[in-house]
Design brief:
By secondary structure, the protein is α+β, with helices and mostly antiparallel strands. Helix content is 43%, strand content 28%. The chain contains 18 helices and 16 strands. A 3-stranded mixed β-sheet has the order 2-5-4. About 6% of the residues have low confidence.
Length: 409
């Protein structure tokens, strides 16, 4: 099925679900047996488990077997897709993550350098090619009443936000295959999305960010339950970037510098080796640089990388070092709670958004031909700004909002 046939098929599906009551039942695992996981839920749960590892020239099938045994799930290679694209399924892997990340993030980082990804299909996790994965779209239903109420116009706006912020080139309105339809069923609002697994993961993360920014997360839904002192992965990185550091490197390979900083701050620091190859950059390039008086790790990273026209982003539980151009092209959507600044005034939240686009990287916003975007949105008594921008611009926005909050106290 293509994205262009999506709306008619989804309409039929929703009518059928509404008539038979299957929509509510489908959201339960095995009917009333809530403790028993479906095969998909079991794999999804495994993907959230922490893992660390080191592989040295380990064939990909052995890597798959290792992870399958560790997580208690079946992991297969899509050998037909490998053969079709001329890839060797016995590719040796040399890769390490010495600080724990979720199995989901670990899989992404191991596979992305090889042009591979993974899917869940017929009760197994399949390692396949990116091209093959993009041809297999999944249908998922998202309950979004908490964000939109039962208001059709607000639901339509929320659907547009999803399409504008998450893989915008992948939706059928602009020539992609993915699609989203919105429906009000009784007093519930849902989005029905037909997309790749990767995009579904991004949608789920976006919804969690919305809940966190607006206080809609219950204790059970929060990343670490009642353990409020335990940091989320992003909070851990932000805290590490604020730590003081000093150093002296003399003709030290960049890869060793990444390992040094990772060990010092207890986080994973990776290089974009595929991007380096494409740009003819050497990950072993020697670096001579020193900062003998302490600065924050954030500033240290900037200065070490600046002369090499490199930058970094925080993504999927690692600090990722890549070219400056690649970093500028790699936008991220963050959600800023601004209720205390705008008092839920539609006019005021629009004004704050306007100030941000005029004062912070003004040439980078979509209304003047850039890639950045800011969308004001109100959820019940909470106002948020949904901003898609580069890591550098997000840092400037955070600083601006902190100063604004301090000024109006």
């Amino acid at each position: 099925m293509t994205g262009r046939n999506l709306s008619k098929s989804i309409s039929r599906l929703v009518v059928l679900c509404a008539m038979t009551g299957l929509l509510a039942i489908a959201q339960q695992s095995y009917g009333k047996d809530k403790e028993k996981l479906t095969p998909r839920e079991k794999i999804e749960k495994a993907l959230q488990q922490p893992t660390s590892f080191e592989f040295v020239k380990t064939p990909l099938p052995e890597v798959a077997t290792y992870f399958g045994k560790m997580q208690g799930i079946n992991i297969l290679l899509d050998r037909r897709a490998f053969t079709g694209e001329g890839l060797d399924p016995e590719t040796p892997i040399t890769f390490s993550l010495k600080h724990p990340v979720t199995f989901r993030s670990a899989l992404k980082w191991i596979l992305c350098d090889l042009g591979l990804t993974y899917m869940i299909h017929d009760e197994v996790l399949i390692i396949t090619t990116t091209a093959a994965a993009q041809k297999r779209l999944e249908l998922k239903i998202y309950a979004v009443s908490e964000f939109t109420g039962n208001y059709t116009k607000k639901l339509e706006k929320f659907a547009d936000i999803i399409k504008n912020c998450i893989a915008p080139e992948s939706w059928y309105e602009v020539g992609g295959e993915g699609g989203v339809s919105h429906f009000n069923i009784k007093d519930k609002s849902v989005l029905i999305v037909w997309q790749t697994r990767e995009v579904h993961c991004d949608i789920e993360a976006f919804l969690d960010k919305m809940r966190a920014a607006t206080g809609l997360l219950s204790i059970a839904q929060q990343p670490y339950g009642k353990d409020k002192e335990k940091l989320t992965p992003r909070e851990k990185f932000e805290k590490a970037l604020q730590q003081p550091t000093s150093f002296e490197f003399i003709k030290t390979p960049l890869s060793e510098i990444a390992n040094y900083f990772g060990k010092m701050h207890g986080i994973n620091v990776l290089l974009d080796r595929q991007g380096f190859r494409d740009d003819y950059l050497d990950p072993e390039m020697p670096i001579t640089f020193s900062l003998k008086h302490p600065v924050t790790f954030r500033s240290a990273l900037k200065w070490v990388l600046r002369d090499l026209d490199l930058d970094y982003v925080i993504e999927d539980e690692v600090i990722f070092i890549l070219s400056g151009c690649a970093a500028q092209a790699r936008s991220e959507t963050r959600i800023y709670a601004v209720s205390k600044l705008v008092a839920n005034s539609g006019e005021k939240i629009e004004k704050v958004a306007e100030i941000i686009t005029k004062c912070i990287a003004p040439e980078s916003w979509s209304k003047v031909g850039g890639e950045g975007d800011v969308i004001p949105f109100t959820i019940k008594d909470q106002s948020v700004l949904i901003v898609t921008q580069t890591c550098d611009v997000h840092c400037d926005i955070e600083e601006f909002l902190d100063e604004l909050r301090a000024a109006v106290k």
